[in-house]
Specification:
This protein is α+β, with helices and mostly antiparallel strands and 109 residues long. The longest helix has 13 residues.
Length: 109
């Protein structure tokens, strides 16, 4: 079983914006807390993090969570990514059925 980050496209060291999506995001929603963080960091777009998430860059996760995401990718499970915006952590979660993706703060889970 190949890790999504070891795809052919990634092996070519493509720039982040050229990496192909691995799965559908469905409806994209964000919590008030996540929106507030992005307003504080106007230099960064939520789209940037959504693309990282969708292309298999799970962000700042432990090895166990990375493996859980890899398994979820291959077996249609829920996928969680975690990123830092300044000192604030944001999560992006795509549901197992790929109908929705939520951007939120961990404390809003």
């Amino acid at each position: 079983m190949r890790h999504p980050q070891q795809s052919f496209a990634n092996s070519l060291a493509l720039p982040e914006h050229l990496k192909p999506p691995l799965f559908l995001l469905g409806a994209i929603v964000a919590t008030p807390g996540a929106l507030a963080i992005f307003q504080q960091h106007e230099e960064v777009s939520p789209t940037h993090y959504l693309h990282r998430h969708q292309s298999g860059d799970w962000g700042d996760l432990c090895d166990e969570d990375i493996q859980a995401n890899n398994d979820a990718y291959y077996h249609s499970g829920r996928i969680l990514s975690s990123y830092l915006l300044g000192s604030q952590k944001i999560w992006i979660i795509t549901e197992a059925d790929r109908t929705a993706t939520t951007i939120l703060l961990p404390e809003e889970y």
